[in-house]
Amino acid sequence: MTSTHAFWLAGRQATGEATFDVTSPWDGHLVGQVAVPTDAQIEEAVAAAHAVRDEFAATPAHVRAAALDHVSRRLVERTEEIAQLISAENGKPVKWARGEVGRAVSVFRFAAEEARRFNGGEAQRLDTDAGGQGRLALTRRFPKGAVLGIAPFNFPLNLCAHKIAPAIAVGAPIILKPAPATPLSGLIIGELLAETELPAGSWSVLPVPNDRMPALVQDERLPVISFTGSDTVGYAIMDSVPRKHCTLELGGNGAAVVLGDWASEQDLDWAATRIATFSNYQGGQSCISVQRVIADASVYERLLPKIVEAVGAQVTGDPSDSATDVGPLVSEDAAKRVESWVDEAVQAGAQLLAGGKRGGASYAPTVLTDVPADVTLSREEVFGPVLTVKRVDGEDEAFAAVNDSKYGLQAGVFTHDVQTAFRAHRALEVGGVIIGDVPSYRADQMPYGGAKQSGVGREGVRFAMDDYTYERVLVLTGLAL
Fold first, then answer.
1. Are 142 and 57 contacting, i.e. CB atoms less than 8 angstroms apart?
2. What is the pLDDT of residue 37?
3. 89, 249, 395, 459: which one is catalytic?
4. Is 459 tagged catalytic?
5. Alpha-carbon distance values, 375 to 67, 211, 381, 394, 476 (Å)
6. pLDDT (tens digit, 9 = 90+) per residue, 427-461?
7. Which of 253, 263, 426, 454 lies 20 to 30 Å from 231 when distance is taken between CA atoms?
8. Which of 160, 287, 339, 459 is catalytic?
């Protein structure tokens, strides 16, 4: 069953002059039709966000928190419906889609909690110097202005939540641009926000085609941009607006390091299972999926066959089936790109141990070894269900291999040694180090972001709230301290 979805303009439902189709990457069936906002409607949304910025910033915390709590509760009530929608428009196996809804529930709940305690102010006595006698400084945070949130296709609900929820929590108006391939999940958030009493203009959800995004990016009334997507697009945005505040969550080619002390059969079984699962979940379309395994020579020969076996046990097929582990990529073009990168690596001498086959938009879970350092698969983010395995000698070589990348989002290190864990934390040029597990672990309340070309700034509800605001100092004079 399909339907036509309106967009949300300054907090109310609106229709455009044209629509576009959202189709399933699994079988091509029509999931829905989405109205496209006109230029006049986009202008109305931006003008409304700019006009309401002072009013929204002054909205009492309990009002913003209540709206966020409402969205969280409604997501719980509609979990199965929304999970099925995510799976249909994205191709994500429904079991992973249910998990995504659960994460979005938490994001809105965390934001409601933070809204209630954020910006209480920090007092600082200034009479520590003679010139500050009788003076007290109070520092609070205020929104920088309206936010343009640009979300990707791979987590079409939760990454929209990570744009919207922190903005509402701090009282910053937000215009959300969901990915054109997966706009329906973002529009669901608009539907739930419309049930709240937030002021008109404080939020809009606009499914704007990518070729109309530059005008929004350039608009001076949107001084904050929060973008999640490719490094090419993200840095082009930043370069085009050097005076705006940009948070960029970009790519990665996540590494899982298995060191020599992770040596029991139970240890290696656990590592292989986690690696196989999280190199293929979401079809590998996660910037912290496992793309590289770096294994110490002492465990390599025992670990490799376990990984190949665990990858082969991944259930591929119809994403609407709860038994499916790996569904299609977002499009056939995406699958063809992955295919070309694997073929290039094999032609250059890489050994293909599993997978390597494409059918439409689906690509089989794939494992390669002996991948040359100069092929695309070694240098770029594959964003598909492909895993490379490399043998190293010792901790130093392993950490150097992790850092031998232009990306630095997260890394996983399988070790039992707490000293090694702290050395990894110091040595690895990444935004997060996960000990005893894969790099794919993310808690939505923790700071999340990367080093090098993996981005600028941090998400995670409280940390995005800091990004959307700035410090303003109030100095009180003539006090008897």
1. yes
2. 95
3. 249
4. no
5. 49, 31, 12, 25, 62
6. 999 999 999 999 999 999 999 999 999 999 999 99
7. 426
8. 287
